[in-house]
């Protein structure tokens, strides 16, 4: 969002094109990183949940 405001202040002709390109690769790598992180987290969570169930 901040990038858009910057490109709006500068020449919107040559800036909007190169601007959206660089920000794309940056948010891409961090996006998939947090995705797999929470995946394995909830996996072990449900494991202990069913464990106490059969014990009871």
Mean pLDDT level = 51
Helix content class: 10-25%
* Percent of residues in beta strands: under 5%
Separation, N- and C-terminal Cα atoms: 52 Å
In short:
Residues 11-56 have a biased composition (Pro residues). Residues 1-56 are annotated as: Disordered. 21% of the residues lie in helices and 0% in strands.
Would you give an account of this structure?
The chain is mainly alpha-helical and 56 residues long. Helix content is 21%, strand content 0%. It is built from two helices and no strands. It has helices at 2-9, 52-55. The chain is rod-shaped. Residues 11-56 have a biased composition (Pro residues).
Which helices and strands occur, and which strands form pairs?
Blueprint: H1 2-9, H2 52-55
Q: Which key phrases capture this entry?
A:
mainly alpha, rod-shaped, single chain, 56 residues
